[in-house]
Amino acid sequence: MAEVKLLGVRGSPFVVRVVLALKLKGIEYEFLEENLGNKSELLLKYNPIHKKVPVLVHNEKPVSESLVIVEYIDEAFKGNPILPTEPYQRALARFWTNFIDDKIFSAIRKAVFTLDEVEREKGVEEALEALQFLENDLKTKFFGGDEIGFLDIAALIIAYWVPIFQEVRGLQIFTSEKFPKLYNWSQELINHPIIKENLPPREPLLAFFKARIEGLSASK
Amino acid sequence: MAEVKLLGVRGSPFVVRVVLALKLKGIEYEFLEENLGNKSELLLKYNPIHKKVPVLVHNEKPVSESLVIVEYIDEAFKGNPILPTEPYQRALARFWTNFIDDKIFSAIRKAVFTLDEVEREKGVEEALEALQFLENDLKTKFFGGDEIGFLDIAALIIAYWVPIFQEVRGLQIFTSEKFPKLYNWSQELINHPIIKENLPPREPLLAFFKARIEGLSASK
Q1: CATH number for the domain including B166?
Q2: Residue B107 in contact with residue B130, Cβ under 8 Å?
Q3: pLDDT band at residue A220 using 50, 70 and 90 as cut-offs
Q4: Which stretches make up the GST N-terminal domain (chains A, B) (predicted)?
Q5: C-alpha–C-alpha distance, residues A17 and A160, integer Å
Q6: Which of B58, B65, B95 sits opposite A68 (nearest CB)?
Q7: Which has fewest Cβ within 10 Å: A133, A146, B149, B186?
């Protein structure tokens, strides 16, 4: 049995964060594909609280939650640091990764996957405001500097998934006109060899999220 | 000027987390009391995104969000580690501290500070379910083992604030009958000398949250 296993689904931005951390560290692992409509015994055993992917299993010990897993990988395996090494820079990276999940992603989810139109509009406004903070913070090629780091991995959801989400809804939230620095960063990021190799293909994702939104309206 | 400053209010469980981390590390600091009804220029300058306390300012550099600040303090100042040192234990501590803020505290807030009664009942149920997971996880005197650690600091909100919240609402969520291990832990924790010295007095807190709930109903 492999020492490192990853329970996940290929299309999830949260799972891809862990895949990238493993690849950046050069760690061999076994990918166990989950069917979220019929969760495996293994998933329920290893993440009984949230019952969600990703779950990393290292020597039979499970770790859940993508950002917790990425920090774990960075601390448990030496070489190629993912987080900055300086304490203040580490704190900033943690602050911004939380900001992405708590503010940007939750606003985007509201803007895209809510049935109520007023709520969706509120989501768009919140997303624009939150993205502006991130745009203002970007000073280097990647958030990690010249190399991809913790915040880039966390923010990949903006670079790759958000354009798909907004296409599905016909929204213009994350655009090169509104966020030129972030947009350039997003192009650098998704064309980085390690990222490019590990992104799920775009068309099936688009079809998946289209179906999900149609399902939303159908169950109105 | 002091090298370390803390912007906060004395009654906030999130601010007290930072106070405790500083005390456990033996770090001298200056406490700058905020008036949240009229936020200082300093707060708006140092935390322009969330405009919330606590903010730690170390050598003029600000860090926001209580858990990010506690990790920063642990990494920037040597001695008396607050987080475990072993990577897997660190990951578990981070998982559970997130669980406290995302699941337990948000359920408690819903159970106590929501106007809608159905929502409040849902909050009570969610809080009971979430607390049970934490009860099951407690195997030692403190979550940190024999000594107070990261998770104890984060969970102090359950030991000290939740009993106040439920008294205000006449609820029975966190009781010695329902959660005997957590209840014993809570008594050990609030009687630990460093914690005891730094807790805000109970009566004013009780009065403050009573007024807050009366304000809720008044603005119905």
Answers
A1: 1.20.1050.10
A2: yes
A3: low
A4: 2-81
A5: 12
A6: B95
A7: A146
Say if residue B148 is in the same domain as residue B203.
Answer: yes
Please name the member of A61, A64, A94 whose beta carbon is closest to the beta carbon of B71.
Answer: A94
Residue among B61, B65, B72 minimizing CB distance to A98: B65
A64–B contact, CB cutoff 8 A: yes
Determine the pLDDT at residue A218.
77
Residue B102 touches chain A, beta carbons under 8 Å: no
Query: Per the domain annotation, does A102 fall within a domain?
Result: yes
Alpha helices per DSSP H over chain B: 13-25, 41-46, 66-76, 87-99, 106-113, 117-137, 150-156, 162-169, 180-190, 193-198, 202-218
Query: Distance between alpha carbon B149 and the CA centroid of its chain, in Å?
Result: 13
CATH code, domain with A54: 3.40.30.10
A105 & A161 share domain: yes
Residues B6/B15, Cβ–Cβ less than 8 Å: yes
Task: Decide if B82 is inside a domain.
Answer: no
Residue of A nearest to B59 (CA): A88
Strands B61-64 and B55-58: antiparallel
* Residues A67 and A106 grouped into a single domain: no
Please state the rounded mean pLDDT for residues A159-172: 96
Q: Tens of pLDDT along A89-109?
A: 999 999 999 999 999 999 999
Question: Facing residues of B62 across strands?
Answer: B57
Region class of A138: left (phi > 0), else alpha (psi between -120 and 50), else beta: beta
- Asked whether the predicted pLDDT for residue A1 surpasses 70, the reply is no
Per-residue pLDDT of A48-94, as tens digits, reads 999 999 999 999 999 999 999 999 999 999 999 999 999 999 999 99
Each residue of A109-142: pLDDT tens digit? 999 999 999 999 999 999 999 999 999 999 999 9
CA distance B176 to B189: 15
Question: Is A101 part of any domain?
Answer: yes
- Both B101 and B164 in one domain: the answer is yes
